[in-house]
Amino acid sequence: MKSTLLAAALAVSATTAFAGAEKYVLDSSHSQVLFSYNHLGFSTTHGMFSGFEGEIMFDQENPAASSVTVSMPVVEMITGWKPREDHFMSEDFFGVTEGEMVTFTSTSIEVTGENTANITGDLTMNGVTKSVVLDAKLNQVGEHPMAGKPWAGFDATTTLVRSEFDLGQFAPFVSDEVELQISVEAQKAD
Q1: Nearest 5°: phi and psi at 65?
Q2: Which residues pair with 73 in a beta bridge?
Q3: Which of 8, 13, 19, 151 could form a disulfide with 156 if both were Cys (CB 3.0 to 4.6 A apart)?
Q4: Nearest to residue 166, comparing CAs of 113, 130, 128, 124?
Q5: Interval 29-76: pLDDT, tens
Q6: Which region holds residue 63: left if phi is over 0, alpha if psi is between -120 and 50, else beta?
Q7: Counting runs of H as helices and runs of E as strands, what totals does the chain give?
């Protein structure tokens, strides 16, 4: 659910205007993956992952040759209710240990417009790796007014089927499809 944010980082590389391959690192304080799912038809439940790490290698001459890698600790999931978070960490779902990570590694980029791209990559979550596609949009590239260095921001969306990651407990009553909204900022590495 949460690793989609990782793929969004690659969208920046597909549309920014820098010469040669340049490394960007995610701004952990301004990057989030929001997820939502239907609960028994009564409500839409939301959660978030934040504070994750990743990098983007961007090749202006050949955006399709760019890449992104992202990782986030499963235990950093926030749902707004501690008993729900504890349940997600239990054997019913992740059965998580302290160091378990969700990772995304891009495998290809298809530029679809001036500021858009489909980013395909391998998402590993709960010990399962599946290919996912992020519908990504570059929001802005330019000098950060406070940091004084090149910065990029973008959004992305995708839908995951949680049972494909062995997280299908209570489906179909609790929706198997999980919507992801990703918003990421990345700064040029020194």
Answers
A1: -90, 0
A2: 101
A3: 8
A4: 128
A5: 999 999 999 999 999 999 999 889 999 887 666 777 778 899 999 999
A6: alpha
A7: 2, 10
CA-based torsion, 123, 97, 35, 32: positive or negative: negative
**From the centroid of its chain, how far is CA 146?**
25
In sequence order, the β-bridge partners of residue 134 are 119
Is residue 13 classed as helix, strand or coil in its secondary structure? helix
Tell me the pLDDT tens digit for each residue of 152-186.
Answer: 888 999 999 999 999 999 999 999 999 999 999 99
Which pLDDT score is estimated for 19?
Answer: 56
Q: Could you give the 3-state DSSP secondary structure of residue 84?
A: helix
Residue ranges in the chain assigned as alpha helix (H): 4-15, 82-89
14: left (phi over 0), alpha (psi -120 to 50) or beta: alpha
- The CA distance from 117 to 33, in Å, is 18
Place of tokens 């290698």: 57
* Sign of the torsion angle spanned by Cα atoms 160, 163, 167, 172: positive
Cα 110 to the chain's mean position, in Å? 17
